[in-house]
């Protein structure tokens, strides 16, 4: 494919946002992480509210889960609809979900931003850096440089247990201590390595073309779809606070970042 030349857009761009919220969140546990309480509002709504407060956003689309979509819409729909958010049912994979979101994009949209539903700590400064780059570049993603030592290991793990006869006699299997160990294959040079974040902003026509052509790509990253399509992706320095809530430890971290006090209360959508 011949790469498109850089184009500097002088006119004000029309920007839409797709927020995939269709993941199963298996690493988080039984609770719905998007419904977790962040200072009186669900995590999902905190993420969406960032974009509702920006005048440069023309359209917001939230893609809900394929399984349990009606429940998702009943729980989050009223608040999202109040902000003018379009809610659409997702697919079996992230690619399918984003494709469904792309079908709802209004005519005349110049750029499409994709942002993880579970990243509620996005700042205006980061978004504006990515947005500025997108006025010249057709595919831009936030990312942070990897600064630590990186090891590549084998995928198989070695389970090491500590047998304690006394504990076993009292607690059974619950009394055993164990740890997973992974064999190192090599150390990877971290020069030029980045960890991807969102937001990621793309030329509207480019993103639609890439998703129309690329199929069955196992990815959680929309920039990879553009790479597979043969176009160049550029990275903009992200922020360490812009983490994605994947585990309960991440949620505790997000609460500290946002200054939200921890609570043992049930998720707000289940209080009544």
Which short descriptors sum up this protein?
29% helix, 2 domains, 7-stranded mixed sheet, 272 residues, alpha/beta, single chain
On the 0 to 100 scale, the average pLDDT is 89
Low-confidence stretches: none
Number of domains: 2
> Given the C-alpha coordinates, what overall shape results?
globular
- The CATH superfamily of the largest domain bears the name Spore Coat Polysaccharide Biosynthesis Protein SpsA, Chain A
Q: How would you characterize this protein structure?
A:
With 272 residues, the chain is α/β, with parallel strands linked by helices. The protein folds into 2 domains: 15-146 and 193-270, Spore Coat Polysaccharide Biosynthesis Protein SpsA, Chain A (Alpha-Beta Complex); 150-188, no CATH class. Helices cover 29% and strands 26% of the residues. The chain has 8 helices and 11 strands. It has helices at residues 43-52, 69-82, 94-102, 124-134, 165-171, 204-213, 222-229, 248-258, and strands at residues 15-20, 37-38, 41-42, 57-64, 86-89, 111-114, 139-145, 150-162, 177-188, 194-203, 234-237. The strands form 3 sheets. It has a 7-stranded mixed β-sheet, sandwiched between helices. β2 (37-38) and β3 (41-42) form a beta hairpin. α6 (204-213) crosses α7. The longest helix is centred in the first third of the chain and has 14 residues, at 69-82.
């Amino acid at each position: 494919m011949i790469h498109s030349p850089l184009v500097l857009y002088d006119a004000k761009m029309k920007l839409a946002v797709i927020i995939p919220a269709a993941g199963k969140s298996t690493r988080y546990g039984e609770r719905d992480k998007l419904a977790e309480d962040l200072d009186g509002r669900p995590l999902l709504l905190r993420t969406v509210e960032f974009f509702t407060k920006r005048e440069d956003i023309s359209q917001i689309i939230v893609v809900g889960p394929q399984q349990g979509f009606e429940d998702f819409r009943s729980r989050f729909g009223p608040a999202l609809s109040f902000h003018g958010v379009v809610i659409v049912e997702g697919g079996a994979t992230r690619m399918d979900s984003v494709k469904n979101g792309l079908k709802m994009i209004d005519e005349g949209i110049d750029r499409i931003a994709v942002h993880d539903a579970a990243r509620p700590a996005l700042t205006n400064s980061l978004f504006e850096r990515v947005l500025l780059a997108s006025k010249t570049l057709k595919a831009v993603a936030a990312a942070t440089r990897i600064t630590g030592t990186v090891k590549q290991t084998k995928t198989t793990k070695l389970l090491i247990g500590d047998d304690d006869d006394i504990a076993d006699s009292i607690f059974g299997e619950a009394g055993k201590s164990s740890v997973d160990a992974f064999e190192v294959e090599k150390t990877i040079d971290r020069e030029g390595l980045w960890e991807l974040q969102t937001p990621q902003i793309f030329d509207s026509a480019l993103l639609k073309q890439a998703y129309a052509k690329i199929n069955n790509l196992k990815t959680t990253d929309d920039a990879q779809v553009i790479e597979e399509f043969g176009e160049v992706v550029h990275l903009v320095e992200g922020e360490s606070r812009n983490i994605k809530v994947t585990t309960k430890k991440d949620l505790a971290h997000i609460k500290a970042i946002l200054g939200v006090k921890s609570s043992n209360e049930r998720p707000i959508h289940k209080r009544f």
